[in-house]
Fold:
Amino acid sequence: MSTTPDSAVRAYIADHREAFLDDLAEWLRIPSVSADPERAGEVRRSAEWLAAKLTGTGFPAVEIWETDSDGLPAVFAEWPSGDPSAPTVLVYGHHDVQPAAREDGWHTDPFEPYTTDGKLYARGAADDKGQVFFHTLGVRAHLAATGRTAPAVNLKLLIEGEEESGSPNFPALIKTHADRLTCDAVIVSDTGMWSRDTPTVCTGMRGLTDCQIDLYGPDQDIHSGSFGGAVPNPATEAARLAAALHDADRRVAIPGFYDGVIELTDRERELLAELPFDEAEWLRTAHSHATLGEAGSTTLERIWARPTAEVNGIGGGYQGPGGKTVIPAAAQLKLSFRLVAGQDAAAVQQSVRDWVGDRLPSGIRHKITFWGATRPCLTPLDHPALQSVVRAMGRAFGQKIRFTREGGSGPAADLQDVLGVPVLFLGISVPSDGWHAPNEKVELDLLMKGVETAAHLWGDLAETWSTT
Ligand SMILES: [Zn+2]
Structure:
Protein backbone atom coordinates (compact mmCIF):
# COMPACT_ATOMS: atom_id res chain seq x y z
CA MET A 1 0.00 0.00 0.00
CA SER A 2 2.92 2.30 0.68
CA THR A 3 4.18 4.38 -2.21
CA THR A 4 6.35 6.67 -0.14
CA PRO A 5 9.14 5.07 1.80
CA ASP A 6 8.61 6.36 5.32
CA SER A 7 12.30 6.79 6.03
CA ALA A 8 12.83 8.98 2.96
CA VAL A 9 9.93 11.16 4.04
CA ARG A 10 11.34 11.46 7.58
CA ALA A 11 14.83 12.30 6.33
CA TYR A 12 13.52 15.02 4.03
CA ILE A 13 11.41 16.52 6.79
CA ALA A 14 14.32 16.46 9.25
CA ASP A 15 16.53 18.28 6.73
CA HIS A 16 13.96 21.00 6.13
CA ARG A 17 12.43 21.32 9.58
CA GLU A 18 14.36 24.38 10.64
CA ALA A 19 13.64 26.40 7.51
CA PHE A 20 9.98 25.35 7.73
CA LEU A 21 9.69 26.57 11.33
CA ASP A 22 11.47 29.84 10.48
CA ASP A 23 8.99 30.44 7.68
CA LEU A 24 6.03 29.63 9.90
CA ALA A 25 7.33 32.04 12.53
CA GLU A 26 7.55 34.78 9.89
CA TRP A 27 3.90 34.19 8.96
CA LEU A 28 2.82 34.14 12.61
CA ARG A 29 4.39 37.60 13.04
CA ILE A 30 1.73 39.02 10.71
CA PRO A 31 -1.24 39.91 12.98
CA SER A 32 -3.94 38.88 10.52
CA VAL A 33 -6.88 39.54 12.85
CA SER A 34 -9.96 39.53 10.63
CA ALA A 35 -12.28 40.93 13.30
CA ASP A 36 -10.28 44.17 13.60
CA PRO A 37 -10.95 46.59 10.70
CA GLU A 38 -7.66 48.36 11.52
CA ARG A 39 -5.82 45.14 10.71
CA ALA A 40 -7.43 44.52 7.32
CA GLY A 41 -4.07 45.44 5.79
CA GLU A 42 -2.37 42.76 7.87
CA VAL A 43 -4.84 40.12 6.71
CA ARG A 44 -4.06 41.13 3.14
CA ARG A 45 -0.32 41.00 3.88
CA SER A 46 -0.84 37.50 5.33
CA ALA A 47 -2.60 36.41 2.10
CA GLU A 48 0.23 37.84 -0.01
CA TRP A 49 2.86 36.22 2.20
CA LEU A 50 1.17 32.83 1.85
CA ALA A 51 0.67 33.22 -1.90
CA ALA A 52 4.39 33.91 -2.36
CA LYS A 53 5.29 30.94 -0.18
CA LEU A 54 2.98 28.60 -2.10
CA THR A 55 4.55 29.76 -5.36
CA GLY A 56 7.94 29.02 -3.81
CA THR A 57 6.69 25.59 -2.75
CA GLY A 58 6.03 24.81 -6.41
CA PHE A 59 2.31 25.38 -6.94
CA PRO A 60 2.11 26.46 -10.59
CA ALA A 61 -1.11 28.45 -10.07
CA VAL A 62 -1.51 30.70 -7.03
CA GLU A 63 -4.17 33.39 -6.83
CA ILE A 64 -5.49 35.84 -4.30
CA TRP A 65 -9.27 35.82 -4.37
CA GLU A 66 -11.12 38.92 -3.29
CA THR A 67 -14.39 38.53 -1.41
CA ASP A 68 -17.67 40.45 -1.69
CA SER A 69 -18.56 43.50 0.42
CA ASP A 70 -14.90 44.59 0.50
CA GLY A 71 -14.14 41.55 2.63
CA LEU A 72 -10.75 40.01 3.31
CA PRO A 73 -8.95 37.95 0.67
CA ALA A 74 -8.58 34.20 0.41
CA VAL A 75 -5.67 32.36 -1.22
CA PHE A 76 -6.20 29.68 -3.85
CA ALA A 77 -3.46 27.42 -5.18
CA GLU A 78 -3.54 24.53 -7.60
CA TRP A 79 -0.99 21.88 -8.54
CA PRO A 80 -2.22 19.40 -11.18
CA SER A 81 -0.93 15.89 -10.95
CA GLY A 82 -0.44 15.38 -14.63
CA ASP A 83 -2.14 12.01 -14.29
CA PRO A 84 -5.61 12.17 -15.89
CA SER A 85 -7.00 9.50 -13.58
CA ALA A 86 -5.75 11.08 -10.35
CA PRO A 87 -8.34 12.20 -7.80
CA THR A 88 -8.64 15.90 -7.00
CA VAL A 89 -8.42 17.04 -3.41
CA LEU A 90 -9.15 20.48 -2.03
CA VAL A 91 -7.48 21.43 1.27
CA TYR A 92 -9.38 24.06 3.27
CA GLY A 93 -7.91 26.23 6.02
CA HIS A 94 -7.74 29.89 7.02
CA HIS A 95 -5.00 32.47 7.38
CA ASP A 96 -6.83 34.95 9.59
CA VAL A 97 -6.56 34.67 13.37
CA GLN A 98 -8.49 35.55 16.51
CA PRO A 99 -7.67 38.83 18.25
CA ALA A 100 -4.90 38.63 20.84
CA ALA A 101 -3.23 41.15 23.14
CA ARG A 102 -0.56 40.79 25.81
CA GLU A 103 -2.98 42.07 28.47
CA ASP A 104 -5.41 39.18 27.80
CA GLY A 105 -3.03 36.98 29.79
CA TRP A 106 -0.35 36.11 27.23
CA HIS A 107 3.05 35.44 28.79
CA THR A 108 4.76 36.78 25.67
CA ASP A 109 3.80 38.95 22.69
CA PRO A 110 1.14 36.91 20.81
CA PHE A 111 2.61 37.98 17.48
CA GLU A 112 6.22 37.25 18.38
CA PRO A 113 6.50 33.45 18.14
CA TYR A 114 8.26 31.91 21.10
CA THR A 115 9.42 28.31 21.39
CA THR A 116 10.01 26.54 24.66
CA ASP A 117 9.79 22.94 25.77
CA GLY A 118 8.83 21.70 22.31
CA LYS A 119 5.92 24.10 22.01
CA LEU A 120 5.58 27.07 19.69
CA TYR A 121 3.50 29.87 21.21
CA ALA A 122 1.83 32.48 18.99
CA ARG A 123 -1.66 33.51 17.93
CA GLY A 124 -2.51 31.24 15.00
CA ALA A 125 0.14 28.61 15.83
CA ALA A 126 -2.55 25.90 15.84
CA ASP A 127 -5.63 27.78 14.56
CA ASP A 128 -4.88 27.74 11.79
CA LYS A 129 -1.55 28.85 10.30
CA GLY A 130 0.45 25.90 11.62
CA GLN A 131 -2.11 23.43 10.30
CA VAL A 132 -2.24 25.12 6.89
CA PHE A 133 1.50 25.44 6.64
CA PHE A 134 2.29 21.77 7.29
CA HIS A 135 0.92 21.06 3.83
CA THR A 136 3.77 23.01 2.19
CA LEU A 137 6.55 20.88 3.60
CA GLY A 138 4.27 17.83 3.35
CA VAL A 139 3.90 18.08 -0.41
CA ARG A 140 7.64 18.76 -0.85
CA ALA A 141 8.46 15.65 1.19
CA HIS A 142 5.97 13.66 -0.89
CA LEU A 143 7.75 14.75 -4.10
CA ALA A 144 11.25 14.22 -2.74
CA ALA A 145 10.51 10.74 -1.44
CA THR A 146 8.73 9.57 -4.59
CA GLY A 147 10.88 11.32 -7.18
CA ARG A 148 7.77 12.91 -8.63
CA THR A 149 7.70 16.44 -10.05
CA ALA A 150 4.00 16.93 -9.35
CA PRO A 151 1.79 15.55 -6.55
CA ALA A 152 0.12 12.17 -7.04
CA VAL A 153 -3.29 13.87 -6.71
CA ASN A 154 -4.53 17.09 -8.26
CA LEU A 155 -3.93 19.28 -5.25
CA LYS A 156 -5.88 22.46 -4.57
CA LEU A 157 -5.72 24.73 -1.53
CA LEU A 158 -8.32 27.27 -0.46
CA ILE A 159 -7.17 29.32 2.51
CA GLU A 160 -9.82 31.73 3.74
CA GLY A 161 -9.24 35.14 5.38
CA GLU A 162 -12.51 35.60 7.28
CA GLU A 163 -13.07 32.34 9.16
CA GLU A 164 -12.58 33.89 12.59
CA SER A 165 -15.20 36.48 11.69
CA GLY A 166 -17.85 33.91 10.81
CA SER A 167 -16.97 33.47 7.11
CA PRO A 168 -19.59 36.03 5.99
CA ASN A 169 -18.52 35.97 2.34
CA PHE A 170 -17.41 32.36 2.11
CA PRO A 171 -20.58 30.80 0.60
CA ALA A 172 -20.57 33.48 -2.14
CA LEU A 173 -16.82 33.03 -2.70
CA ILE A 174 -17.08 29.30 -3.30
CA LYS A 175 -20.15 29.70 -5.50
CA THR A 176 -18.32 32.31 -7.61
CA HIS A 177 -15.31 30.04 -8.05
CA ALA A 178 -17.12 26.70 -8.02
CA ASP A 179 -15.64 25.73 -11.42
CA ARG A 180 -12.10 26.16 -10.06
CA LEU A 181 -12.88 24.30 -6.85
CA THR A 182 -14.28 21.12 -8.37
CA CYS A 183 -12.79 18.17 -6.54
CA ASP A 184 -13.50 14.65 -5.32
CA ALA A 185 -13.05 15.41 -1.62
CA VAL A 186 -12.35 18.32 0.70
CA ILE A 187 -9.79 17.97 3.47
CA VAL A 188 -10.38 20.48 6.23
CA SER A 189 -7.12 21.24 7.99
CA ASP A 190 -8.59 23.27 10.83
CA THR A 191 -9.48 20.78 13.55
CA GLY A 192 -7.83 18.81 16.29
CA MET A 193 -7.33 15.37 17.71
CA TRP A 194 -8.66 13.78 20.87
CA SER A 195 -5.31 14.10 22.68
CA ARG A 196 -1.53 13.69 22.31
CA ASP A 197 -1.83 10.00 23.17
CA THR A 198 -4.94 9.32 21.14
CA PRO A 199 -4.60 10.55 17.57
CA THR A 200 -7.97 10.74 15.87
CA VAL A 201 -9.73 11.66 12.67
CA CYS A 202 -12.97 13.62 12.85
CA THR A 203 -15.66 12.19 10.58
CA GLY A 204 -18.45 14.72 10.85
CA MET A 205 -19.89 17.91 12.22
CA ARG A 206 -23.38 18.71 13.36
CA GLY A 207 -25.51 21.25 11.54
CA LEU A 208 -27.41 24.11 13.10
CA THR A 209 -30.54 26.15 12.72
CA ASP A 210 -31.79 28.69 15.23
CA CYS A 211 -34.74 30.99 15.61
CA GLN A 212 -36.57 33.55 17.66
CA ILE A 213 -40.24 33.12 18.45
CA ASP A 214 -42.09 36.32 19.33
CA LEU A 215 -45.40 35.86 21.10
CA TYR A 216 -48.02 38.61 21.40
CA GLY A 217 -51.05 38.58 23.72
CA PRO A 218 -53.05 41.61 24.86
CA ASP A 219 -52.43 44.87 22.98
CA GLN A 220 -50.66 46.24 26.08
CA ASP A 221 -49.60 45.02 29.54
CA ILE A 222 -52.79 44.52 31.54
CA HIS A 223 -53.74 44.13 35.23
CA SER A 224 -53.47 40.55 36.41
CA GLY A 225 -56.21 41.08 38.99
CA SER A 226 -58.77 42.56 36.63
CA PHE A 227 -58.05 40.14 33.76
CA GLY A 228 -55.83 37.33 35.02
CA GLY A 229 -57.13 33.84 34.66
CA ALA A 230 -59.46 34.77 31.82
CA VAL A 231 -57.12 35.70 28.93
CA PRO A 232 -54.03 34.05 27.40
CA ASN A 233 -50.62 35.15 28.68
CA PRO A 234 -47.73 35.18 26.13
CA ALA A 235 -45.07 34.63 28.82
CA THR A 236 -46.92 31.55 30.04
CA GLU A 237 -47.18 30.30 26.47
CA ALA A 238 -43.43 30.85 25.89
CA ALA A 239 -42.75 28.75 28.99
CA ARG A 240 -45.24 26.08 27.86
CA LEU A 241 -43.46 25.83 24.51
CA ALA A 242 -40.06 25.56 26.20
CA ALA A 243 -41.37 22.89 28.58
CA ALA A 244 -42.91 20.89 25.73
CA LEU A 245 -39.70 20.77 23.62
CA HIS A 246 -38.61 17.48 25.18
CA ASP A 247 -40.48 14.41 26.34
CA ALA A 248 -39.83 12.51 29.58
CA ASP A 249 -36.87 10.72 27.96
CA ARG A 250 -35.40 14.09 26.93
CA ARG A 251 -36.08 13.35 23.30
CA VAL A 252 -37.13 16.29 21.17
CA ALA A 253 -40.93 16.16 21.07
CA ILE A 254 -41.49 18.13 17.86
CA PRO A 255 -43.24 15.78 15.39
CA GLY A 256 -41.01 15.02 12.39
CA PHE A 257 -37.87 16.35 14.07
CA TYR A 258 -35.99 13.06 13.82
CA ASP A 259 -37.10 12.32 10.24
CA GLY A 260 -34.15 11.03 8.21
CA VAL A 261 -31.66 10.96 11.10
CA ILE A 262 -28.79 8.60 10.28
CA GLU A 263 -28.36 6.54 13.43
CA LEU A 264 -24.95 5.48 14.69
CA THR A 265 -24.11 1.94 13.68
CA ASP A 266 -23.16 -0.57 16.36
CA ARG A 267 -19.59 -0.38 15.05
CA GLU A 268 -19.52 3.41 15.39
CA ARG A 269 -20.86 3.21 18.91
CA GLU A 270 -18.15 0.69 19.78
CA LEU A 271 -15.47 2.93 18.30
CA LEU A 272 -16.70 5.97 20.21
CA ALA A 273 -16.76 3.92 23.39
CA GLU A 274 -13.06 3.07 22.84
CA LEU A 275 -12.06 6.72 23.33
CA PRO A 276 -10.57 7.35 26.77
CA PHE A 277 -13.37 9.66 27.87
CA ASP A 278 -13.23 11.03 31.40
CA GLU A 279 -16.70 12.32 32.12
CA ALA A 280 -15.73 14.15 35.32
CA GLU A 281 -12.99 16.02 33.46
CA TRP A 282 -15.36 16.78 30.61
CA LEU A 283 -17.90 18.18 33.08
CA ARG A 284 -15.22 20.51 34.41
CA THR A 285 -14.58 21.84 30.89
CA ALA A 286 -18.35 22.19 30.47
CA HIS A 287 -18.63 24.20 33.73
CA SER A 288 -21.68 22.04 34.42
CA HIS A 289 -22.56 20.11 37.55
CA ALA A 290 -24.11 17.03 35.96
CA THR A 291 -24.77 15.42 32.60
CA LEU A 292 -28.30 15.23 31.26
CA GLY A 293 -29.62 14.32 27.84
CA GLU A 294 -31.47 11.94 25.60
CA ALA A 295 -32.11 8.54 27.19
CA GLY A 296 -30.19 5.65 25.67
CA SER A 297 -27.21 7.69 24.43
CA THR A 298 -23.82 8.29 26.02
CA THR A 299 -22.46 11.78 26.52
CA LEU A 300 -20.21 11.57 23.44
CA GLU A 301 -23.08 10.27 21.36
CA ARG A 302 -25.29 13.10 22.61
CA ILE A 303 -22.82 15.85 21.66
CA TRP A 304 -21.62 14.38 18.37
CA ALA A 305 -24.26 12.17 16.83
CA ARG A 306 -27.66 13.16 18.20
CA PRO A 307 -29.74 16.18 17.17
CA THR A 308 -30.79 18.56 19.90
CA ALA A 309 -33.17 21.36 20.78
CA GLU A 310 -32.00 23.98 23.27
CA VAL A 311 -33.61 27.05 24.77
CA ASN A 312 -31.01 29.79 24.34
CA GLY A 313 -33.12 32.51 25.91
CA ILE A 314 -36.59 33.17 27.23
CA GLY A 315 -38.03 36.49 28.22
CA GLY A 316 -41.04 38.75 28.51
CA GLY A 317 -43.01 40.72 31.03
CA TYR A 318 -41.74 42.51 34.06
CA GLN A 319 -38.08 41.86 34.97
CA GLY A 320 -37.42 44.81 37.32
CA PRO A 321 -37.11 44.89 41.10
CA GLY A 322 -40.06 43.85 43.24
CA GLY A 323 -43.39 42.77 41.85
CA LYS A 324 -45.58 44.14 39.13
CA THR A 325 -48.84 42.31 38.67
CA VAL A 326 -49.27 42.38 34.93
CA ILE A 327 -50.11 40.06 32.10
CA PRO A 328 -47.46 41.13 29.62
CA ALA A 329 -48.25 42.07 26.05
CA ALA A 330 -45.35 40.10 24.60
CA ALA A 331 -42.76 37.38 25.27
CA GLN A 332 -39.89 35.83 23.33
CA LEU A 333 -38.20 32.48 23.07
CA LYS A 334 -34.86 31.80 21.35
CA LEU A 335 -34.28 28.22 20.27
CA SER A 336 -31.42 26.44 18.52
CA PHE A 337 -31.35 23.01 16.97
CA ARG A 338 -28.18 21.02 16.32
CA LEU A 339 -28.72 18.72 13.37
CA VAL A 340 -27.10 15.46 12.34
CA ALA A 341 -26.59 13.80 8.99
CA GLY A 342 -29.83 12.87 7.28
CA GLN A 343 -31.79 15.80 8.70
CA ASP A 344 -32.89 18.57 6.40
CA ALA A 345 -32.70 22.03 7.95
CA ALA A 346 -35.63 23.37 5.91
CA ALA A 347 -37.79 20.41 6.96
CA VAL A 348 -36.81 20.92 10.61
CA GLN A 349 -37.73 24.59 10.35
CA GLN A 350 -41.14 23.65 8.94
CA SER A 351 -41.66 21.10 11.73
CA VAL A 352 -40.91 23.81 14.29
CA ARG A 353 -43.33 26.23 12.62
CA ASP A 354 -46.10 23.61 12.53
CA TRP A 355 -45.48 22.57 16.12
CA VAL A 356 -45.59 26.14 17.44
CA GLY A 357 -48.66 26.96 15.37
CA ASP A 358 -50.51 23.90 16.66
CA ARG A 359 -49.75 24.55 20.32
CA LEU A 360 -50.64 28.21 20.77
CA PRO A 361 -54.15 29.10 21.94
CA SER A 362 -56.22 31.63 20.07
CA GLY A 363 -55.51 35.14 21.30
CA ILE A 364 -51.74 34.59 21.05
CA ARG A 365 -50.26 35.80 17.78
CA HIS A 366 -46.74 34.75 16.93
CA LYS A 367 -43.86 35.33 14.55
CA ILE A 368 -40.94 32.91 13.99
CA THR A 369 -37.68 34.19 12.56
CA PHE A 370 -34.99 31.66 11.63
CA TRP A 371 -31.53 33.19 11.62
CA GLY A 372 -29.94 30.67 9.32
CA ALA A 373 -29.07 27.07 8.70
CA THR A 374 -25.83 25.13 8.50
CA ARG A 375 -26.09 21.61 7.18
CA PRO A 376 -24.49 18.70 9.02
CA CYS A 377 -21.72 16.75 7.35
CA LEU A 378 -20.65 13.16 7.82
CA THR A 379 -18.13 10.97 6.02
CA PRO A 380 -18.83 7.24 6.21
CA LEU A 381 -16.09 5.26 7.97
CA ASP A 382 -15.52 3.13 4.88
CA HIS A 383 -15.07 6.06 2.49
CA PRO A 384 -11.80 5.44 0.59
CA ALA A 385 -10.49 8.97 1.16
CA LEU A 386 -11.13 8.65 4.89
CA GLN A 387 -9.33 5.31 4.89
CA SER A 388 -6.33 7.04 3.25
CA VAL A 389 -6.28 9.76 5.89
CA VAL A 390 -6.35 7.09 8.60
CA ARG A 391 -3.49 5.14 6.99
CA ALA A 392 -1.38 8.27 6.41
CA MET A 393 -1.87 9.40 10.01
CA GLY A 394 -1.18 5.87 11.25
CA ARG A 395 2.17 5.84 9.43
CA ALA A 396 3.10 9.27 10.79
CA PHE A 397 2.03 8.58 14.37
CA GLY A 398 2.89 4.89 14.53
CA GLN A 399 -0.36 4.37 16.41
CA LYS A 400 -3.92 3.22 15.89
CA ILE A 401 -6.03 6.13 14.66
CA ARG A 402 -9.46 6.45 16.25
CA PHE A 403 -12.53 8.42 15.25
CA THR A 404 -14.27 11.43 16.68
CA ARG A 405 -16.96 13.79 15.54
CA GLU A 406 -17.47 17.46 16.17
CA GLY A 407 -20.57 18.78 17.92
CA GLY A 408 -20.23 22.30 16.50
CA SER A 409 -20.91 23.58 13.02
CA GLY A 410 -18.70 25.38 10.52
CA PRO A 411 -17.91 26.49 6.97
CA ALA A 412 -17.02 22.90 6.02
CA ALA A 413 -20.71 22.34 5.42
CA ASP A 414 -20.74 25.10 2.77
CA LEU A 415 -17.98 23.28 0.90
CA GLN A 416 -19.91 20.03 1.09
CA ASP A 417 -23.10 21.72 -0.12
CA VAL A 418 -21.67 23.77 -2.97
CA LEU A 419 -19.13 21.26 -4.24
CA GLY A 420 -21.24 18.17 -3.51
CA VAL A 421 -18.33 16.08 -2.23
CA PRO A 422 -17.44 14.50 1.11
CA VAL A 423 -15.57 16.58 3.66
CA LEU A 424 -12.76 15.01 5.68
CA PHE A 425 -10.98 16.51 8.65
CA LEU A 426 -7.23 16.30 9.18
CA GLY A 427 -5.89 18.09 12.24
CA ILE A 428 -3.01 17.56 14.65
CA SER A 429 -3.97 20.13 17.27
CA VAL A 430 -4.79 19.02 20.82
CA PRO A 431 -7.36 20.49 23.23
CA SER A 432 -4.66 22.17 25.34
CA ASP A 433 -3.50 24.25 22.34
CA GLY A 434 -5.77 27.08 23.51
CA TRP A 435 -7.59 28.06 20.36
CA HIS A 436 -9.01 31.59 20.71
CA ALA A 437 -7.41 31.77 24.19
CA PRO A 438 -4.26 33.40 25.57
CA ASN A 439 -0.99 31.50 25.03
CA GLU A 440 -2.17 29.56 22.00
CA LYS A 441 0.48 27.05 20.97
CA VAL A 442 1.22 24.13 18.75
CA GLU A 443 3.25 21.13 19.87
CA LEU A 444 6.17 20.87 17.48
CA ASP A 445 6.37 17.09 17.38
CA LEU A 446 2.66 16.92 16.49
CA LEU A 447 3.10 19.65 13.89
CA MET A 448 5.85 17.58 12.26
CA LYS A 449 3.53 14.54 12.38
CA GLY A 450 1.09 16.69 10.43
CA VAL A 451 3.80 17.33 7.83
CA GLU A 452 4.47 13.61 7.68
CA THR A 453 0.79 12.72 7.38
CA ALA A 454 0.43 15.17 4.47
CA ALA A 455 3.55 13.65 2.87
CA HIS A 456 2.01 10.14 2.96
CA LEU A 457 -1.52 11.11 2.10
CA TRP A 458 -1.36 12.07 -1.57
CA GLY A 459 0.38 8.90 -2.69
CA ASP A 460 -1.98 6.71 -0.70
CA LEU A 461 -5.04 8.49 -2.06
CA ALA A 462 -3.89 8.28 -5.66
CA GLU A 463 -3.07 4.62 -5.30
CA THR A 464 -6.19 3.44 -3.52
CA TRP A 465 -8.98 5.71 -4.64
CA SER A 466 -10.29 5.39 -8.13
CA THR A 467 -12.70 8.23 -8.81
CA THR A 468 -13.37 7.35 -12.42
ZN1 LIG B 1 -9.69 27.74 12.74
About this structure: The chain is about 35% helix and 20% strand. The chain has a mean pLDDT of 95.
